Amino acid sequence: MRTRLRRLVVTALALFTAAGSLPAAAAGATDRQENPSNGGLSAVIRYTEYGIPHILAENYADLGFGEGWAQAADEVCTLAEGFVTLRGERSRHFGADAVADGELSAARTNLTSDLYFRGVRESRTVEKLLTEPAPVGPSREVRDMMRGWAAGYNAWLKQNKITDPACAGASWIRPVTELDVAVRGYAVAVISGEGRFVDTIATAQPPSGSATAVGSAASRTPGVKAVATAARELWGTGDMGSNAVAFRGDTTANGRGLLLGNPHYPWEGGRRFWQSQQTIPGELNVSGGTLLGLPTISIGFNAHVAWSHTVSTGIPANFHQLTLDPADPTTYLVDGKPERMTKRSVTVPLKDGTSVTRTQWWTRYGPVVTSLSPQVPLPWTTTHAYALYDPNAANLRFADTSLGFGKARSTDDVLKALARHQGIPWVNTLAADRAGHSLFTQSQVVPRITDELAARCSTELGRTTYPASGIAILDGSRGDCALGSDPDAVTPGILGLSRMPTLKDAPYVENSNGTPWMTNADQPITGYERIFGTVGTELGLRTRGGIEDVAAMAERGDLTVRDLERQQFANRVPAGDLAAEDVARACAALPGGTATGSDGKAVDVSQACEVIKAWDRTMDTGSRGALLFDRFWRKLPPSGLWKVPFSAADPVRTPNTLNTDAPGFATALADAVAELRAAGISLDAQLGAHQFVVRGGERVPVPGGSGRLGVWNVLEPTWNAAGGGYTEVPFGSSHLQAVSWDGSSCPVARTLLTYSQSSNPNSPHYSDQTRLFSGERWVTSRFCEKDILSSPKLTVVRVSEQR
Fold it and tell me: What is the pTM of this model?
């Protein structure tokens, strides 16, 4: 292996070019890194177009080293701030009352973020998981990658000057350890469980005095409707989402599988994707996107298989209602026997040199929480409290699961990796392989909540919340209501792989964050537990539009990667296809061409009728009428929207026929027209003139639209009328990949990282792929050695721990 690695390095160096697309901070390191260290960790990084690194190493520790180095070169400020978060030091550096960054938890303030993450550190939660033997704990390969990643990040800090103005000269940038890297993986795993409840975990306190008297506001039980609404807000796709589709070989031009991945993630901060290829000759060769700070490829492909993830409808946590000892609200009863809560006192240092200490309360089930949201309390009274169970709080298996995908040679191997590690925390997996197989599976870590257990053990509130929202609230006072263990589960308390909604080898499998039921309209998945999602319920417009598109593609057949590229940037608006004609007709019928806005003022909407009628029903940057329809659609009341109701017998085409007779219709139209005119925006303005990002002082128009419109290429920009309409994009399409295979050993792949590799405005890779996204263009992946070494932008960097 070492001989082969040296041969590859010699070949690469023979083609070394001093010019190229090297990250700005790493460019200065080229000349001084002539030879890998003989004693420490080292790797060879070959940069090709758009600053994409192809990391070549002899072993997993060296591979992690190269990954940590290259991520630091592009994203040191984002990574460093994340490590401040994970150490519980945001209050010390940025102020306790300041708004938290929101990227590694849902904490609203730095103080609550610090209280949670310092509690994780002081309880040694992650250290204990690291000591567990695989597969419960991480494998030796993953431990080596984490150790190597930390060493690579530290070596980059030591050997380079930070040029990113976001953190240049910052005192809070420090070296990291393997534990820091592991805690980052832990935070990603719990981000949809405990991470959603950081504020209430950090602040829940036992009752005292008359504040908890029966009938007081604090003791009222929340209603099922409020709980269901809170569940949608907590576990919906507001800050994470995705589309993906995999096609079976008999739908494609050459009998190979096809996969299109389109995750929707934040464009800034710690949940950005970052691209690389990881190669250990003879052991591993995988390319794709990874979430920053993680050592393994999160979404990607190799010579045999490609996979992507979509945020699932599964509920990743549940609640246990505690029956308390009447004499002590910090003692709860299980089968009549008292158990004292565990009291954790956590101290957080503050910016002024003082500190604050708060107490957290933990039970056998997990932490005590006192709300689902600010509007939905779960009151801690003298008789009852609620504890949160998040099984991902014992899950460091995501990296091993991803590494298993990277080594897979088929979709069956993807399932085997899931069966062995069961580490996917809150997403579905879709995959295709070169033999023509397709796969969908909602194999994620969820509590072992069966419908039978929920029926037998739900509290009064839980008997309504579970069917309505999938949130189980169990009677924590009964030992027979313990979650138990499935024989095929990696650990107790979670559902085993055999219970996971799965569909193999369908002509297509598609998911747009909808229920697994409609993964394929001709082969509905049924029979799964309610915690995974619903069956026979109304689909979102993005799911409906996605199924329409991909089912038609599968029916047409002879598909290639080019068809996937077109699907990604079709920018079709299903809401427009359903409603635009009716809107234009009803608009034209308004008396005098006017409508009354919500402020009671009459608005001339006659021009809007013609604009919407002429609109091409896309969200392309050149589309005229898209902006008007988008603003109108957002203002429509959701209730009573359609004349033809949903039918489970025709879920993709119902509901339909916009109810233009509803009183909210004309009001929404008037408000949208008035809003655009007040902002000085023409009703028929091109979308790209008012939906853009600013890079280097230049407006870069970006295509795509809101998921609520059903658009596949999701963008959720920020509305700023004074700034020109939609401006900066905080969330949307991120790491795109369209993958297939031919008769060679090289995948046929196109990729695109919409926001580019680096957040550093001084980097040449701060906006280069964003400009490609603006023009709806892709990057041809360089996977095989011959393609990497023939890149006209090839730059080779040998990095090591020693200067």
Answer: 0.94
